[in-house]
Design a protein that fits this description.
2 copies of one chain form a homodimer. Chain A is an alpha/beta fold. Chain A folds into 2 domains: 26-145, Rossmann fold, CATH 3.40.50.2300; 153-247, Winged helix-like DNA-binding domain superfamily/Winged helix DNA-binding domain (Arc Repressor Mutant, subunit A). Helix content of chain A is 35%, strand content 21%. Chain A has helices spanning 36-48, 59-68, 85-94, 112-120, 133-145, 179-190, 198-205, 215-228, and strands spanning 4-7, 13-16, 28-32, 52-56, 73-77, 103-107, 125-128, 153-156, 159-162, 167-170, 173-174, 237-240, 244-247. In chain A, the strands form 4 sheets. In chain A, strands 4-3-5-6-7 form a 5-stranded parallel β-sheet, sandwiched between helices. A 4-stranded antiparallel β-sheet of chain A has the order 8-9-10-11, covered by helices on one side. In chain A, strand 5 (73-77), helix 3 and strand 6 form a beta-alpha-beta unit. In chain A, helix 2 runs parallel beside helix 3 (85-94) and helix 6 (179-190) packs across helix 8. In chain A, 33% of the residues are buried. The interface between A and B is medium-sized, with 31 and 35 residues. Chain B binds a DNA duplex through residues 1-3, 178-181, 212-213, 215-216, 218-223, 225, 239, 241-242.
Chain lengths: 252, 252
DNA sequence: CAACCGGTGTCATAAAAGTTACACACTTTA
DNA sequence: TAAAGTGTGTAACTTTTATGACACCGGTTG
């Protein structure tokens, strides 16, 4: 299991763990589209561009996913089962947490009044189907370019650590961490999948000179786990007997 | 120092953009278009919408005008005498002062590769001629909505700070702030959500040369809180243990 | 000119938050 | 099953932050 080095334009190199989960700072895009053929085409191509792509097949699912984890950009089809794209857009613009998510609407409705309506209701761009993938990429890139300087953000699975805001979230849930737990997690997130001995963790997450018991690491790992997994979620910290700990995807 | 007292009533009629910053003036738009018929049509209609519209008939003039006064938005025709719109766009994106001006390209070139090229080079949107005025308005509005905070009035939640009047209010309640508290709040409001250490806050809200105890920041934060939250309102200042403070929405 | 007054910085102390050590239970390994 | 390695709860302890009191300073007022 050698670390795979994966490089994306304008991004640093990011190691992938053995489960193929890329730890990138790549923009996350939620594609909301009910036509499987089109959604597959879009997702496939966007993923090939290095984006972290999620898919929602209808309005409800979309709102649900967004409430759990806020994407950097939403591609939103107009015609959708359950809740229409227009309505999804309206609802997103209402809530403070979601109102500034960039939205590109996709629609077969090419009438001028349609695009105007979409933009009026809060969409940032409006693409008329059928559109070429190149056009989509260009629009997506142009939109992401204008994103407010995305603070130093580390991501691992649904774990997001924002170094500027000094906040950690898992699935949108804010995690109350103490300074040491924060440093510990920050270190682990910058080296995902790697196992560290207690000595190494003390070296990295504690003061250089501090002479602390090795066992202390256990306690902090435990507390980190407790906070991290509050909510019956899977344990992201792997214990390696006689070696140490690692931030890692659960086996099963 | 007189207590800061004022009313924002006069500002409230201005539209707020997505950053919560009120536009205290009408957005200025530079139209770069050599076809007199079209440019007149566009200018006339935009002015009727209340925008502060300027016109440039060719690339040189456009760059010249922009260097003299930076507009909020540029409508840029592709085909232009002297310097092409594409080149103007490229040059604008090169200089720090102009690189973040929103640009909507206008062009009769409807090929996919053209729009892609325009967007790649730095345009934020690309409209294919002929387009309806309604579409143009919608695109312009959508673009201006996303302008970063630059106004003289900062807003965060129900907190409003007017830099010109040098006054602050929350929920319509006037806040009597001292000079230091005002500077502190002003700085925090221009960087919402970000955590700053006491050193950074001293650097930003105090005189360069002043050598003041770090703990002094605590006291001023406390005074700021006291004034800000007089009225059983939620605390907008987040304490980050061992790091500093941030202006932030209460999470829970 | 002297008293007053709001704005500041500093200190001492209280309160809160986070860290460490330790005892012991539990689990895995040989 | 013994030995080694881990997990957990607790209590003492340390660090950091909140707060109230007070002295100083410059400007204004009577």
């Amino acid at each position: 299991m050698t670390p795979v080095v994966f490089s994306v334009a304008s991004c640093l190199s990011f190691p992938a763990n053995r489960y193929g989960v890329f730890m990138t700072h790549n923009a996350s895009i939620l594609v909301v589209e009910d036509d499987p053929a089109l959604s597959r085409l879009i997702c496939y191509n966007l993923e090939k561009q290095g984006y972290d792509v999620r898919l929602a097949g209808d309005g409800h699912t979309a709102l649900d996913q967004i409430s759990r984890r806020i994407p950097d950009l939403v591609l939103l089809d107009w015609m959708l089962p359950s809740i229409s794209g227009l309505e999804v857009c309206r609802q997103l613009r209402e809530q403070p947490k979601t109102k500034s998510i960039p939205i590109i609407m996709l629609s077969a409705r090419g009438q001028e009044t349609d695009s105007v309506r979409g933009l009026e209701i809060g969409a940032d761009d409006y693409l008329i189907k059928p559109f070429g993938m190149e056009t989509l990429f260009a629009r997506v890139k142009a939109m992401l370019r204008r994103l407010p300087p995305s603070g130093n953000v580390l991501k691992f699975d649904a774990l997001v650590l924002d170094r500027v805001a000094h906040k950690v979230e898992r699935n949108g849930r804010l995690l109350p961490l103490g300074p040491t737990e924060y440093r510990l997690l920050e270190f682990l997130m910058t080296h995902p999948g790697q196992v560290f001995s207690r000595e190494e963790l003390l070296e990295q997450a504690w003061e250089r000179s501090s002479c602390v018991e090795l066992r202390t690491v256990d306690v902090h790992i435990r507390r980190l786990r407790q906070t991290l997994n509050a909510g019956e979620e899977k344990d992201l910290i792997r214990t390696v007997r006689a070696r140490g700990y690692a931030l890692d995807m659960p086996q099963d």
